[in-house]
Specification:
The complex is a heterodimer of chains A (about 200) and B (about 450).
Chain A lengths: L1 H17 L1 H13 L6 H12 L10 E2 L11 E2 L8 H43 L15 H14 L1 H36 L5
Antiparallel strand pairs in A: 1-2
Chain B lengths: L1 H10 L7 H17 L4 H10 L5 H13 L1 E3 L2 E3 L54 H9 L4 E2 L7 H8 L2 H17 L6 H25 L1 H6 L7 H4 L4 H23 L1 H21 L6 H21 L4 H23 L2 H7 L4 H4 L1 H25 L5 H22 L3 H24 L9 H11 L1
Antiparallel strand pairs in B: 1-2
InterPro entries (chain A): COA8
Keywords (chain A): Membrane, Mitochondrion, Mitochondrion inner membrane, Transit peptide
Family (chain A): Belongs to the COA8 family.
Amino acid sequence: MNVSATGSLLIRSQCRYHGRNVLSLVNFTCSRLHNTGPAPKQAKETERARFSPSSGSKHDWIGPPDRLSNLRPIIYHIPENETPQERRLRHLRQETEDWNHQFWTNQNITFNREKEEYILAQLKAKGLAERDENGKKHTLNSEQMAVFYKDFLDQNYKRHSSYNREWYRRNFTITLLMARVALLRAWRRLGGGRPAA
Amino acid sequence: MPVLCLRNMYKTPCSRLTGLLGTTVNKQLSARAAKCPLSSRGLTQLRSTHPKEWLTFQQLRFLKRQYVVRHSGALGQRPRPKQEPVSAALEDRGDVMLQQVQQIPTIKSVAGLAVPAPGAKPPPDLSNEPEADRLARIEARQWKELKVDYSELPDVYARLSKINLTALVVTTAAAGFAMAPVPFDPYLFLYASLGTGLCSCTANSINQYFEVPFDSNMNRTKNRPLVRGQISPLHAVSFALACGIPGVALLTLAVNPLTGLLGALNIVLYTSCYTPLKRLSITNTWMGAVVGAIPPIMGWTAATGSLDAGALLMGGLLYSWQFPHFNALSWNLREDYSRGGYRMMSVTHPDMCRRVALRHSLGLIGLSSLAPVVGITTWTFPLVSLPINLYISYLAFRFYRNADRQNARKLFFCSLWHLPMLLLLALTCKTRRTEPEALPASSSLSVLS
């Protein structure tokens, strides 16, 4: 952890000379130290790296919804005198974000793929092609689709409920940690006399 | 018609193309327009022979989008009707059927699937979009600093606490208060309404706090404040505590402990039972109906201080009403619910969904007839409420027999005006208590005479 802390300090001091792109890359690499990503993560990383907040900004930045997971990525601001709790919070949030992104990307892709497969299978069973003679896609009516929707939910029940539990646990932990960090910052500001980051 | 469209598009967007590209494209377009046979079949043939140069087909689709609007899945020529803001959002889960549902960009799978995607995602219907949604849509495409904007904060809080739903909850509590057979105390009424409103704000905020990733993935909820990052989760929880603690305290201290207990119980039921259950089992709907039934009971206990049969009847009316309301709403959201992992009757047990909606609509008739038996209204109430109860039952029957999007929408919209109407009728038919002050006066009169 010290490596990343000193690393960020060092590079931040150089930032003023090298401009804001370095800052964004550093923020990005520091927060990535723990993560090895499969393909969706890497795609998200490049998306995130394309954006760089202005170097004077002291806040986190939130981006547009991801194309696959519909979740919004956040770029976290690293203050200069980041305490261990703040770093832990940031890492936890980043990790949760990635985990969420992976789950929902997987979920959405699987859902759409299985839906298309189901439609094709049903159409084949009825002896119809995917498109009619006008080039329009054949659609199934809502009763037939309901069979698929129910099936999808039933097959993924365990996965969904374990995701739920994990998400609630992480959400609580993050919020409690945020509360602690906020209290510590307020205490520093009141007690320390010097302005907090 | 296709030729006309081709010509239109030649005039408008394509004529703006400049330079060599423009002249080449325009020449080709005019050549095609001249050659193009007057049929859609011809167009598709043209498309298949010259796929690469088929800018025109995209343009046609663009024009079509301008004039043909999508009404919850069915295409129609009418623009969407304007939404009434207040009575719109109702159910804790039914925030937005009436707000403009933006078309979700269809998520095309990344690799391997031959899902033809003409151009980009189907754009949202822009013809009748409210300003707030338009701004949200534009804002969603950009990176934004996560800084609290104090000027937006009241609006954020309103949306976080689902202010429309809260208003309806307070209305039902007020109805419960007004139906109680005690003299009307305006201060008590005010405290009870305020306390109930605060409890509802808390419950809704915590619900949104729990459901951020699910809300991001569903069309109707993706503009919520936490999803958009307008405030942090800690801020939302603090707001919830800031509403809940004074709310329950107000109910307990200024009204009575029973009402305070019911308020706290409702918060717990909604946040800790209903919200997680939504993803685990279909019993969430019944739990949600109980949550909706408690506010009128709270109103009654605020006025009288005790749980009577009248309170339970008012709660029963709300309980039964939830089913046609929610089942109809959830019918048209089945795909989103399935993808989001929500277990709703409409997805997993569609037959039961329709049966239950019908059963409870008929139950409303029965409960309305019980009102005079219990003594809260006169016998005129079942009679005057019969038309609206029969109408909602009729719509529920049609939904039961033939559950398509139209019938579901009709049933849902009917439930929106049915409930306020029913409560109003109950209020007008309330049994009048005989005034105790009349007795001593008449006895003194008899003494004098």
